[in-house]
Structures are given as C-alpha cells and as structure tokens.
Amino acid sequence: MRPLSKCPLSKRPLSKRDVAEFYRRLAATRPIPQTELEFINPFTLLVAVVLSAQATDVGVNKATPALFALAETPAAMAALGVERVESLIRTIGLYRTKAKNVVALSRILIEKHGGEVPVDRDALEALPGVGRKTANVVLNVAFEEPRIAVDTHIFRVGNRTGLAPGKTPLAVELGLEAVTPPQYKLNAHHWLILHGRHVCKARKPDCPNCVVAALCRYKAKTGPDELIAARAAAANKTKSAGAPRKPRRPVAPSVVAAARKPRARSAARR
Predict the structure, then answer these.
(1) Phi and psi torsions of 37, nearest 5°
(2) Catalytic hit among 16, 57, 122, 151
(3) Does residue 18 have an active-site annotation?
(4) Is residue 153 assigned to a domain?
(5) Active-site annotation holds for 122
(6) Domain range holding 159?
(7) Model pTM greater than 0.85?
(8) Which of 6, 57, 62, 133 is catalytic?
C-alpha cells in the first residue's frame, strides 16, 4: 500500500446528500459491479485474495487457473504441499510466503472448520495471511455481506474525494460504513475499488472522465474545467430526466384578462 501520509486528506467531507449522489452516479456507470479476481468457490476466492496482497489482480489471474485446476478445495490444496504450490504461483510477488500461508490455512480449515470457509470475520482473520481487508472481501463477495474492504485504492478515493477521510484504512472503513446509504452498501466495495483503479488513479486521476468530479473535494483536479463541468451537467440532466415535472400553478382569470387588455398609447406617440 502507498504510504498513508502521502494520501491527501480532505478537510471537508461530503454532505449526506452528496454522498448519496456520489454512489448513485457510480452505480449508474456499473449497475452490476464484480470483483476482477477469478475464482470458483469461497475457498478459491479466499486463496486468490491472499495471493493478491502487494500484487495485481491481473497477475493473480494468470497464475490461479493452473493452481485451481489441481486444487479447488482445502484438502486438495493441503495435499499439493508448499513446494508444489510455490511452483504454480512463482510469477506472483512474495510467492514463497504466500504458498506457505495458503497450505497452512487449508489445513486449519480442515481441522477447525470442516473444510469450509467460515462466515465470520474473526475466524477468517485467524487464518495465516488473512487480515481485515481480506476477510471483508471474502464476506462481501462470497457470502454477500455488506462489508467494505479498504485497500490502497479505496483508501485514496475515500480521502481524496472527501467521501470518508481518515488517516488509517480502519478509519476510512468505519467512515464508509457510517456514511454509505444502506441500498449501496453491498456493492460499495466494488464501485469504489474499480473507480480508484480505473479513474481516480494515484499519479494522475482521470478527472475529465470522472462522473463524480463535480462532487469531489480534490483541489488538484486534472484536465479542462469545462469538460469536468460538462460531465457534471450531463449527470445532473440524467438524474432529473426521470423525475416527474411539477404541475404549473393555475393562473387566475383576472390576471389573464389583464394581460390580454390592450395598452393605451401615450400622448407623445399620437
């Protein structure tokens, strides 16, 4: 993760109304967001997330097909052993440590959880190589619990935009839990991580193509201000398009009659 001290901390959080609009716009761009990690079942998802630490999802997805073809259960993974797992994930950073953790957590799942992935954050965090973020991802993706796992992308988005400023990942997580409307909580993790990964990038955020740029508190926005404003106007137009128009108030007959009555010419124009 990028050093936390270098992530800009917004001094002015978004209002409750802006937070709801923030999520509405993200949801409109990705109605059904999904994780970019490839997996077969809750166990393979757990393994994939453990392997993704300090690595990219693309890199993990290149290594896991061969691994999961041989082992998609804790029993099969434990049977492979550390050396065999190492040989299958060599392209991933820290592969030796990760191989040990994957085999060790597989054995614990067999011994303590009947070979199943527990639906409990404390139990997940007790597994080798599993922290709060990994546990939240598994609970959210595999078991559809409304958890918001904070990685480097979500930490940046939360602080940069003013959505949930915080000096630590836990502070940002708790902030997001507090401000995210209930109807958006299940998919909030996906919307935020995909937005941070593809739009609100670390070095050069793509502000001109950002649907929430007009709401964002980030001062050093990139790109022409006119384009950012145009996208904001388009988003507002889309929001208001579906709303029913308010009926016009009836005009009193006396007012109509007065408007239709011809005006007398002035003496100067006669």
Answers:
(1) -80, 140
(2) 151
(3) no
(4) yes
(5) no
(6) 4-34+146-209
(7) no
(8) 133
